[in-house]
Write a structure and sequence with these properties.
By secondary structure, the protein is an alpha/beta fold. Strands 1-4-5-6-7-8-9-10 form an eight-stranded parallel β-barrel, surrounded by eight helices. Strands 2-3 form a two-stranded antiparallel ribbon. The chain binds the ligand O=C(O)c1ccccc1NCC(=O)[C@H](O)[C@H](O)COP(=O)(O)O. The ligand O=C(O)c1ccccc1NCC(=O)[C@H](O)[C@H](O)COP(=O)(O)O binds next to β10 and α11. GO terms for molecular function: indole-3-glycerol-phosphate synthase activity; phosphoribosylanthranilate isomerase activity.
Length: 252
């Protein structure tokens, strides 16, 4: 009994020391756009690995700490997507601080609706910030311009053709996130994402396919259609070894 208590305290002590060390980090993550372009120029689809413990549909996995995750997927990922939203996704800003030491681009992933959140992303050291077109409506470009002024690269997420065209007609230089998940009913349709990509490929600077990507077969379809990167959460949380296979998918 006594030795169990000591073991546990040792674990807590070790993890807390690492967490405090991360809190002190003042680094800035490198840019996502350049990293994706570099990966594509080497002939590969870029992989953005998301640290995602839960979603509105329920808990995904709580038994992987962020160090274990970043260590496992870091060598294969072009960048990280880090959920900071605490209620539905059990995210935290500390995960960004921890990710900084891996030297990869970092996307701040929350339902961003305010300048304060953009500032938070910047102060934490993220390189990009997620802006969801359907969530922001008319305030999208005001917030996107603010993020750019703060030195962040906005990832503008859409889930339909009209919004995708709207984004590239307004600013083709931002990263365009094409979500397979319908944000009304949370249903996933890779087919819908593929048809949106078909419409915008060659006109958007960077296309990132998001959500519902289960493995190499899905990633290949998206790459063949014109995606520059895939953003994968749930499947990687369930099987971190998938990162190696996904990192080997080629672009043309
Ligand atoms: O993940 C959800 O269920 C979700 C529900 C409502 C709004 C947003 C949601 N997800 C945010 C994301 O962008 C995903 O975490 C990301 O695309 C990764 O998706 P997946 O690989 O399917 O976990």
């Amino acid at each position: 009994m006594a030795s169990k208590a000591v073991d546990f305290l040792d674990v807590i002590n070790g993890l807390t020391r690492k967490r405090v060390e991360a809190m002190r980090a003042s680094a800035r993550a490198p840019g996502m756009i350049k990293a994706i372009e570099q990966r594509n120029s080497e002939g590969y689809l870029a992989l953005i690995a998301e640290y995602k413990r839960a979603s509105p549909s329920g808990v995904i996995r709580l038994d992987i700490d962020p160090w274990t995750y970043f260590n496992a997927v870091g060598q294969y990922a072009t960048g990280f997507s880090i959920l900071t939203e605490p209620i539905y996704f059990l995210g935290s800003p500390i995960f960004i601080k921890i990710a900084l030491s891996y030297g990869k681009p970092i996307l701040y992933k929350d339902f961003v609706i305010s300048r304060e959140q953009v500032m938070d992303a910047r102060e934490l050291g993220a390189s990009s910030v997620l802006l969801i077109k359907r969530l922001l409506g008319d305030s999208l470009w005001e917030l996107a311009d603010y993020a750019i002024k703060q030195g962040l690269e906005p990832l503008i997420e859409v889930d339909n053709e009209k919004d995708a065209l709207d984004v590239i007609n307004t600013n083709p230089n931002v990263m365009l996130g094409i979500n397979s998940r319908d944000l009304n009913d949370l249903s996933i349709s890779l087919g819908r994402a593929l048809s949106i990509i078909r419409v915008v490929r060659g006109r958007a600077n960077i296309i990132i396919a998001e959500s519902g990507i289960k493995g190499v077969e899905d990633a290949l379809k998206l790459a063949n259609e014109g995606a520059n990167a895939v953003l994968v959460g749930t499947a990687l949380m369930r099987n971190m070894n998938l990162s190696r296979e996904l990192s080997e998918v080629r672009v043309h």
